[in-house]
Amino acid sequence: MRMLIIFPPVLSNMWEKVDAETSTVISNNNDGLSYNARFKLYKVEDNITSVSENDLRTISPVQEFTLNSGTVELTQLASKLGRYALVETESPTGYKKVEPILLDLVETQQVHSMLQMKNTTAWKVVGNTTGSTIGESGGYTTFTGVAINEKIIVDYTNLSGNKITLKVKNEREDRPIRLKIRKVDEKGMPIAGSNYEDISRFSILDSDKRMYNNQVANLVGGEFTFDNGGKKFKAGLYHLKEERAPKGYLLINTEIPFYIKDSGDIIIPAKLKDGSNSEYEVDEQFVYKNHLKVIQSADTDIVEIAVENKKGIFPYTGGIGTLLYLSTGILLMGTAVMSMKLRRKSKN
């Protein structure tokens, strides 16, 4: 039989700022500042199911804290059980502020040793979560595992040691981009040219493979930066089409789907994830996947896509060159047929 021992419900909270997509800590501090996020914790009525930052302006916060390099460990100042609102007042550069998060401070029992239980407090996310197991022991709520929803991750792994890790998620701000298309050969060297007939020509198509805002250009010098008429490209599905290949190289003869995320990151070649109608992933089976390389930097709004062309004998670029090769082939075939007929006659 386990003995119950009462501990003061003082909890140590490890707060972290994490990228909503990768769950990794956002460690860079804001420009010119020694921190990258700030929070306020408010006590609210227990029946509140939603709240805005503006609703709380007349209330004094229970606790205020700052995250340096994305983390901070603090002694919990909230002591009254019930509902609280966690409000982010400043977010990391390049990220959106998360909407207020509702948390319940509850009393819980945790195993202290083989024969002992102890009382402490814990944060419980208001609303649905996945990943954690919430149970009951001696009339108290118990927690194990990690609770996850779209705004926060609560890790109860060290709750028996009076410590909880709370990871607040931030989504990246919308980041329209420009697209630099660069032609390279099989060795990664630029394929340049100045003569119209010798250089590549590309267009940007929409999700239905229609010309997008007249975005078409010749790659003079082997590259061109599309900027969507100065508006840049927002998140969404697009297609890249090679209209003409460089002289002596084979044409990429199918449209290449690519997806721009809100963060400005690119998925190419892109396809919908199984069972989803909005989430995209790299299409590993795309025929030209190994012909594409993305070069991206957080310091610029230009995303570079290097498109590799292989050398080829037959010019898939169209025009008179194709006609000449075809005519030559027909002539050679005709000559061969006539030669066979003459040999047969001579034998007879």
Report the principal-axis shape: elongated
Proportion in β-strands: 35-45%
Our count of domains comes out at: 2
Total strands: the figure is 23
CATH top-level class of the largest domain: Mainly Beta
Q: Tell me the Rg in angstroms.
A: 31 Å
CATH topology of the largest domain: Immunoglobulin-like
Share of helical residues: under 10%
Mean pLDDT value: 86
Written description of the protein model:
- With 348 residues, the chain is mainly beta.
- The protein has 2 domains: 3-170, Sandwich (Immunoglobulin-like); 178-308, Immunoglobulin-like.
- It is built from 1 helix and 23 strands.
- The chain has one helix at 320-347, and strands at 3-6, 12-19, 37-43, 63-67, 71-75, 82-90, 101-113, 116-125, 130-137, 140-148, 152-155, 163-170, 178-184, 201-205, 211-218, 223-226, 236-244, 256-260, 266-267, 270-272, 280-282, 292-295, 302-308.
- The strands form 5 sheets. It has a 6-stranded mixed β-sheet, with no helix packed on it. Strands 5-2-12-11-10-9 form a 6-stranded mixed β-sheet, with no helix packed on it. A 5-stranded antiparallel β-sheet has the order 15-14-17-18-19, with no helix packed on it.
- The longest helix is centred in the C-terminal third of the chain and has 28 residues, at 320-347.
